[in-house]
Amino acid sequence: ADPWGIYAGLAGSGPGPLCSMSPRLIRLGKVPASSILASAPSDKNLDAWRESGCRTTHCNLEVLQESTLVFLATKPHILPGVLQEIRPAVGSHHIVVSLVAGVTLQTLQRLLPAGTKVLRLMPNLPCVVQAGAMVFARGSGAGDEEAALLKSLLSSCGLCEEVPESYINIHTGLSGSGVAYVYLFAEALAEGAVKMGMPGSLASRIAAQTLLGAAKMMLESGEHPAKLRGDVCTPGGTTIHALHQLEKGALRATVMNAVEAATNRARDMAKD
Ligand SMILES: NC(=O)c1ccc[n+]([C@@H]2O[C@H](COP(=O)([O-])OP(=O)(O)OC[C@H]3O[C@@H](n4cnc5c(N)ncnc54)[C@H](OP(=O)(O)O)[C@@H]3O)[C@@H](O)[C@H]2O)c1
């Protein structure tokens, strides 16, 4: 019944990244719900997993005993204790995937048995609507097979790319936090329309659809955004007048500064 021959066990099962990914995986039939075992100390978040047809436990070791593919998704300060607890049960057949922010592959490898197949994954919020942008990096024990498995499983939740580990903090600055910059821009777009007389709810919906359409064209055409932007500019027209205002407000430099600030903050938090 399980086309992948794997069992996805989950130690740490919050409402965040894992819950957003797993229902999609289950719906697509990539992993049967009955093959997923989620673990957490309390039932607070486990109810949602049970409602999706998954099995749950309060025992992390049970996840290791039953699963080949194990996702770790606790808060960072909890993780060392969980790794200490599961370490004796981790074997060469396990693939351990950590979503825990700021915890490096080096740390994961140090706290797990030598040679463990470890991968580090960073999702973002739109995984909830299967339009996520995820990157992952593999540890020294993980090979092409494990990377291909993870990519194949998660591609149903959005874009999933393998990257060098040093890109993970940049991904946080670009995409994890970037979702909030885009909301700010959407809000400003809509407010502009409200100022000019359009009702707020209509303006918000049109702002969202404008972002969606622009993003879709960028992905589907593969064109550089500067080219697509140029295509919208009629000489002497409305768009170039508006773009001039955005340039006066230093939009580009401000957004680049934002990505830099979030990336540096992610790096600092990882050091802590
Ligand atoms: N939220 C996001 O969009 C996002 C994106 C990228 C990465 N991340 C990372 O993903 C991780 C989880 O985030 P979240 O928002 O889902 O956090 P969360 O809501 O706090 O969920 C953490 C889960 O871990 C469980 N837990 C606590 N101690 C445990 C233990 N000893 N063994 C097993 N499970 C344990 C908690 O159980 P209880 O329910 O019983 O407390 C809870 O269900 C964080 O490291 C975060 O940095 C989050």
List the helices and strands and how they pair.
Elements: E1 8-11, H1 17-27, E2 36-39, H2 46-51, E3 55-57, H3 60-66, E4 69-72, H4 79-86, E5 95-98, H5 105-111, E6 117-122, E7 132-138, H6 144-154, E8 158-162, H7 167-176, H8 178-195, H9 200-221, H10 225-232, H11 238-248, H12 251-271
Parallel strand pairs: 1-2, 1-4, 2-3, 4-5, 5-6, 7-8
Antiparallel strand pairs: 6-7
Quick summary of this structure?
The protein is α/β, with parallel strands linked by helices and 272 residues long. It is built from twelve helices and eight strands. Homodecamer; composed of 5 homodimers.
As for the number of domains, it is 2
Structural category: alpha/beta
Q: What's the count of strands?
A: 8
The proportion of residues in beta strands is 5-15%
Find the CATH superfamily of the largest domain: NAD(P)-binding Rossmann-like Domain
Instruction: Please list the strands of the largest sheet in the order they lie side by side.
Output: 3-2-1-4-5-6-7-8
Small ligands present = NADP nicotinamide-adenine-dinucleotide phosphate
InterPro entries: 6-PGluconate_DH-like_C_sf (IPR008927), NAD(P)-bd_dom_sf (IPR036291), P5C_Rdtase_cat_N (IPR028939), P5CR-like_CS (IPR053790), P5CR_dimer (IPR029036), Pyrroline-COOH_reductase (IPR000304)
Family: Belongs to the pyrroline-5-carboxylate reductase family.
Pfam family, one: F420_oxidored
Organism: Buteo japonicus
